[in-house]
């Protein structure tokens, strides 16, 4: 497959290696210095684009792909306030777009465990719930996209929680997400339920970025035959 990489940083470089190992061709590497070259790519020259860039530029990169007829998947976090506009464009252009806050297979199974546990804990009102996410110090956004997806899984199922906040809150209806930044940590997420008598904790620890990158390449292999807005639930049939 002919793959364009949009963003050639930590993720872009690992994705390149995995894609080459799986027999794909990298036909473009778009980064800050050659960002204008993206406008010259189209669906004839690129089978699929993989976008891991930065919150400030992701939306423009994605709209260019959709307008130029390139199926595109994005892992960039911190730009999702613009997702409804992008979804509208995808519908208007009959395009193909995939988004996941986390491409690791393990995290997507963890999302389901989180929802199941939240359902069980809904009637158990003696338990307080909070979350912690830990990432490397270069991360630009907080809380992480993965933490937001986990928080949505709690909020959809635990009625005593109304919204998440990225701090430690005294308000019973607020779900705390604590963001910690430590050198070299690829991504650790935990959800805690605490009562006077015991604690329950679920935790996912990424040992490297390989799981995110492999998931993105597997989705890229699947995506060109799809239409519309797709997610990991569609890909994994969860
Ligand atoms: N969904 C998932 O599974 C995962 C998501 N992520 C997310 O992916 C994103 C990228 O992560 P990571 O690779 O670690 O970050 P990096 O900062 O290492 O890489 C981002 C790259 O984007 C480049 N860039 C800047 N402007 C543009 C532009 N206009 N077009 C294309 N590229 C540009 C940057 O260049 P320069 O440095 O020169 O500015 C940099 O090389 C983040 O939002 C992160 O949260 C990360 C891991 C997994
Ligand atoms: O910035 C990162 O590194 C990561 N970002 C994603 C997120 O915000 O959830 C996924 C992963 O945790 C690594």
From TrEMBL:
Keywords from the UniProt entry: Amino-acid biosynthesis, Cytoplasm, Diaminopimelate biosynthesis, Lysine biosynthesis, NAD, NADP, Oxidoreductase
Keyword match Amino-acid biosynthesis: yes
Catalytic activity: (S)-2,3,4,5-tetrahydrodipicolinate + NADP(+) + H2O = (2S,4S)-4-hydroxy-2,3,4,5-tetrahydrodipicolinate + NADPH + H(+); (S)-2,3,4,5-tetrahydrodipicolinate + NAD(+) + H2O = (2S,4S)-4-hydroxy-2,3,4,5-tetrahydrodipicolinate + NADH + H(+)
Name this protein carries in UniProt: 4-hydroxy-tetrahydrodipicolinate reductase
Segments forming domain Dihydrodipicolinate reductase C-terminal: 106-236
Function: Catalyzes the conversion of 4-hydroxy-tetrahydrodipicolinate (HTPA) to tetrahydrodipicolinate.
Positions with a binding annotation for (S)-2,3,4,5-tetrahydrodipicolinate: 136, 145-146
HAMAP family assigned: DapB
Membrane-crossing residue ranges in chain numbering: none
All copies of domain Dihydrodipicolinate reductase N-terminal, residue ranges: 1-103
Subunit (UniProt): Homotetramer.
Primary localization: cytoplasm
One Pfam short name: DapB_N
Cellular location(s): Cytoplasm
EC identifiers of the protein: 1.17.1.8
Coiled coil start-end: none
Residues the record lists as binding NADP(+): 32
Top-tier EC class: oxidoreductase
One cellular component term from this protein's GO annotations in UniProt: cytosol
Gene name, Swiss-Prot/TrEMBL: dapB
Biological pathway: Amino-acid biosynthesis; L-lysine biosynthesis via DAP pathway; (S)-tetrahydrodipicolinate from L-aspartate: step 4/4
Residues the record lists as binding NAD(+): 31, 75-77, 100-103
Active-site feature positions: 135 (proton donor/acceptor), 139 (proton donor)
């Amino acid at each position: 497959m002919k793959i364009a990489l949009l963003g050639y940083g930590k993720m872009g470089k690992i994705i390149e290696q995995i894609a080459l190992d799986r027999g794909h061709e990298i036909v473009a590497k778009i980064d800050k210095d050659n960002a204008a070259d993206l406008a010259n790519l189209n669906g004839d020259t690129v089978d699929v684009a993989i976008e891991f860039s930065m919150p400030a530029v992701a939306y423009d990169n994605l709209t260019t792909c959709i307008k130029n007829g390139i199926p595109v998947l994005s892992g960039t976090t911190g730009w999702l306030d613009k997702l409804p506009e992008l979804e509208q464009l995808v519908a208007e252009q009959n395009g193909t777009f995939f988004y996941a806050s986390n491409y690791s297979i393990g995290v997507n199974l963890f999302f389901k465990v989180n929802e199941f546990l939240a359902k069980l804990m809904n009637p158990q009102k003696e338990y307080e719930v909070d979350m912690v996410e830990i990432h490397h110090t270069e991360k630009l956004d907080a809380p992480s996209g993965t933490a937001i997806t986990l928080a949505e899984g709690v909020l959809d199922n635990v009625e005593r929680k109304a919204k998440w906040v990225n701090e430690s809150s005294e308000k019973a209806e607020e779900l705390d997400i604590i963001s910690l930044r430590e050198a070299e940590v690829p991504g650790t997420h935990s959800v805690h339920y605490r009562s006077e008598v015991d604690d329950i904790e679920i935790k996912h620890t990424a040992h490297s970025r390989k799981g995110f990158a492999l998931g993105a390449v597997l989705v890229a292999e699947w995506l060109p035959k799809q239409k519309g807005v797709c997610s990991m639930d569609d890909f994994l049939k969860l």
